[in-house]
Amino acid sequence: LSAPGGVSLVVPQPNINATVAQNILLSVEYSCRGVATIEWKHVSSWGTTKIVEWKSGNYVNISTVYKDRVTTFENGSIQLLNVGMRDAGYYFVTVTEEYGTNTYGTIIVNVYEIIYEDLHFVAVFFAFLAAVSAILICFMWLCNKSLHLFQKKTTHKLTASTTEEIELETIEC
């Protein structure tokens, strides 16, 4: 993006997805002829908050809400530490040249929670499946053993009755 006064601003990553407690880099690159003032604002459903404002090579004014969570860089980028759900929203950066020309950039940040209840449910479900599998395997083993015992008794009965018939036949002759 280039403004008439010679201020340009590039936003290489306009969408950022992060999880709670992660650090994110709101990356931009600006260039201008004179001294620039960089200002970052956060806009969300909770309202608009000024994060930081600084002049290249001079002062840095960080809002008290972000005091221990923001790092500024000479290229205009900022790093936001330990993001939370309230950090989701639009981040607007304004680069203003000393002659009054300015340009704007926007980064959309989505913050997601890792829901441990879902992981807990999955772990319990797999434990349940493992227990059911173990019970079924034991049941199949018992059925197999019972079948073998039943077959042995049946073959013994058959052998005994067949032998009696043969003996009876030979006696009758």
UniProtKB/TrEMBL annotation:
Any Pfam family hit: V-set
Key words, A-Z: Glycoprotein, Membrane, Signal, Transmembrane, Transmembrane helix
Highest taxon of the lineage: Eukaryota
One Gene Ontology term, aspect cellular component: axon
Gene3D superfamilies per record: Immunoglobulins (2.60.40.10)
Transmembrane segment boundaries: 119-143
GO process annotations (BP): filopodium assembly; positive regulation of excitatory synapse assembly
Compartment list: Membrane
Immunoglobulin domain location: 13-112
Protein name according to UniProt: V-set and transmembrane domain-containing protein 5
Originating species: Tauraco erythrolophus
